[in-house]
Amino acid sequence: MPSTPKKQPTFATKRLRLRAFRADDIEAMHALYGDVDNLRYWSTPPSANLGATRRAMRWHLVYRPRQYVIWAVEESKSRKVIGMINYHHRNLREKRVDVGWLTLPQYQGKGYMTEAGRALLRHLFDDLGIHKVEALILPANKPSVALAKRLGFRKEGGPIRDRWSVGGKWHSVMLYGLITGEER
Ligand SMILES: CC(C)(COP(=O)(O)OP(=O)(O)OC[C@H]1O[C@@H](n2cnc3c(N)ncnc32)[C@H](O)[C@@H]1OP(=O)(O)O)[C@@H](O)C(=O)NCCC(=O)NCCS
């Protein structure tokens, strides 16, 4: 019987550890959220400085599994935070979540987020009893679309018009969906 863990779980994969963010991860968080180029397809504007990251990222340190959970993606051998993965907008009645993912540029193209994504999907389906996972992705974000498809997501709709507002500009997004049993 699926049940929501009382404490944020940690997952080990072949090359990674997915764990809760800690207050002392602030520089790693800023490397993730302060990179203007890497965040060009992100749903919120980049963080202007370390102080802004510290203020904005407080919600990263909280475990609210009925709404969202964020994991730091750590490379096991170096113990460096190389990315983050999350679920959010959990709908308890419809057993559905959205997911988000972000890798530092120097760690992209190594299959790390595919590995993290598979671990997250296992947790969502096996532990939380989620039925459907969705990802909203800008049409131009080819690496994110490729990642979603690699994990088994299918394009379901879009462009969903003016779904994101980023720094005062509206963006239309594509909807990708994955139902339990479709994961690869
Ligand atoms: C979206 C994002 C996480 C995808 O990262 P990524 O590195 O392309 O994805 P993965 O970690 O799964 O790596 C896959 C790539 O590694 C390659 N790879 C190398 N070794 C691999 C291995 N052992 N296993 C699997 N893939 C491997 C794959 O071939 C693939 O490369 P390709 O696309 O050139 O074929 C990344 O582009 C990102 O952080 N973007 C900025 C933030 C963002 O836009 N997030 C999404 C918002 S919707």
UniProtKB/TrEMBL annotation:
One of its GO terms (molecular function) is acyltransferase activity, transferring groups other than amino-acyl groups. Gene3D superfamilies: 3.40.630.30. Residues 16-176 form the N-acetyltransferase domain. Keywords: Transferase. It holds the Pfam family Acetyltransf_3. The keyword Transferase applies. This is N-acetyltransferase. It comes from Reyranella soli. The lineage of its organism: Bacteria, Pseudomonadati, Pseudomonadota, Alphaproteobacteria, Hyphomicrobiales.
